[in-house]
Amino acid sequence: MNRGEALLLEVGAFSRRLVTRVGRASLFLGAVLRRSQMPFARPRLLLREIYTAGVLTLSIVVVSGGFVGLVLGLQGYDTLQRFGSETALGSVVALSLLRELGPVIAALLFASRAGSAMTAEIGLMKATEQLDAMEVMAVDPIARVIAPKFWGGVLVMPLLAAVFSAVGVLGGWFIGVVVIGVDEGTFWSQMQGAVSWEEDVAGGVIKSAVFGVVVTWIALYQGWSCRPTAEGVSQAITRTVVLGALAVLAADFVLTAFMFIGV
Amino acid sequence: MPDQLVVEVKGAVAGYGEEAVLKGIDCTVRSGEVVALMGGSGSGKTTLLRLLTGQLPLREGEVTVFGERIAGAKRETIQRLRRRLGMLFQQGALFTDLTVFENVAWPLREHTRLPERIVRDLVWLKLEAVGLRGAASLYPAELSGGMARRVALARAIALDPELLLFDEPFAGLDPISLATVGLLIRRLNDALGAASVVVTHDVQESLAIVDYVYVILAGRIVAAGRPEEIRASDDPFVRQFVRGEVDGPAPFHYPAPPLTRTLLEERA
Amino acid sequence: MANSRFDLWVGLFVVVGVAALFFLAFQVSGAASARVTGETIQVVAYFDNIGGLKVKAPVKSAGVLVGRVTAIRLDPSTYRAEVTMAISRAVPFPKDTSAAILTAGLLGEQYVGLEAGAESEMLQDGDRIAVTQSAVVLEKLVGQFLVQRSAE
Ligand SMILES: Nc1ncnc2c1ncn2[C@@H]1O[C@H](COP(=O)(O)OP(=O)(O)OP(=O)(O)O)[C@@H](O)[C@H]1O
Ligand SMILES: [Mg+2]
After folding, report:
1. pLDDT tens per residue across span C32-57
2. Among B33, B34, B83, C37, which residue carries the largest CB count within 10 Å?
3. Residue C27 is part of which domain span?
4. According to DSSP H, which parts of A81-181 are helical?
């Protein structure tokens, strides 16, 4: 067998694995959606997941949002003042945060903080037969464990992205208005003139909701399908973070092309 | 309703991959009985239990529990049958983020709408039955293996099941805990009027408490009988197993090509 | 006890998240200040050139927001731009009010500026503003300037 053939075989085997995995993951998502009554019938289950996915992620989102806003303020001012349009600082900061940085960075933080925790918890429950035990006790683990986590993640993500953007705007305001001395009124009115409610704010919320679905789905599926050993769980966690980040960036490209550019 | 058929397995063939692990199993369990399922590691004992709980699809044959087919049945049927059985997992499978008390309360909270006061009373009764009322506020990580086993037992009997399945309840226990758990199984079975299946390697301990024994080897039942019949058996494999001898019909090796061939292939 | 602690934190989280959304909607995008409150009338104006004017651009008088551009189309008979605006009923404008397309700052967004006239009759719903001044196109200005220079 020559090199070319070997390469083709490799590509073939890879594609087959990829298709199988995507297929299985889609069936899994379908099952989760079909068995989603429990988190809404028993809101306490949902509250617990909002707590672990949202409340525990909030602090790093606030801190990161603040720093990103400060940096945007400095960089934006440095670039804009070359063209004499420092007054546009507000709109530059707000648009970058609302359209891209807020949803994307918040989703990356969410994948590494909340997503990895979801994978770890489910993987360990699987490795220690807790999921099997539930099943034998006539309780469906998808409805009882997975579905609440899924909806918790999906509901929490847009709020985290909004907090990130809001704190970021305040960071930009601090650098622009307080430190550099751009006129306060101009800063806000320029921003309000440039930012549209339907396109930029709502668009960002839609983006972050999609990211929430994608990251939570990946995290839950990795935990659910991992090999039930210590090594298997740790590999699944790594995959959640890596695949989650890649999926967010790829989804961002597609969404941006559709929503803002209108391909 | 004594002597009622609780479990009936006929010609069951099942497995995970290409080759079947169970190659045609027949066995029955009646109410009031404690039945032991013995056999070496990897002989398919856990696999058989997974058939009884409907966790594994059946390839051939028939598995009925409480007179209804469970393997391959509809979800609702399986769930309904599962509510009537309790299972003790090989590793305990306690919920690690809940206390001992909450672990035992879990099935009650999921399946009943009993008021909190009654749930608490029931949990205390179950914990008293396994002698661990004092450990109620501990987490599973703070328990010894034997204690965890007993908590899992309390959780398995929380809903007063009619069929109890035990996967190696004696593994890794000191002689005293072992005798305790053995006695508990017999007493709980009789108190609940249930039927029990005990998977075990521990020949002497189980022969002392059970009513009937099935010996399984490589996916087939090779011997069955009352404990005294098993002790007196002159079947070479049963004698090897009961006396714990290395040499005999039961292979020590997992199926493999001859060693010389493996070594030669390594060289090539 | 443990439950109420969850509730408290989750409640706080939701409040913070929703507050952030409100902040983005009203302070950052100016959805509130952008809305022309109350009843409006529709008026049209024709321009030779609207430059970069867009639908939803503000309509201001003396710098105060009084309305929004609601539609822009090309009149097929005259080839002039027909701009429809919704302006607040609260401040009636005289019939001879003039409209101009102005730019906020050198490179800012474009808006319609209204300059009130002197007549006693007021603009009604569906009326047309007769006197208009088109957008200043920067390239044209620069071109004119260069031509003048070279002529001197
Ligand atoms: N989830 C699984 N996937 C694939 N093969 C499995 C799986 N579980 C068990 N097996 C295989 O099935 C065979 C029987 O396993 P089983 O767990 O039933 O043995 P056992 O009798 O319970 O052994 P032990 O006493 O060691 O628990 C083994 O050869 C094992 O390799
Ligand atoms: Mg086993």
Report:
1. 555 556 788 899 999 988 887 877 77
2. B34
3. 1-32
4. 89-96, 102-110, 116-127, 130-136, 141, 147-173
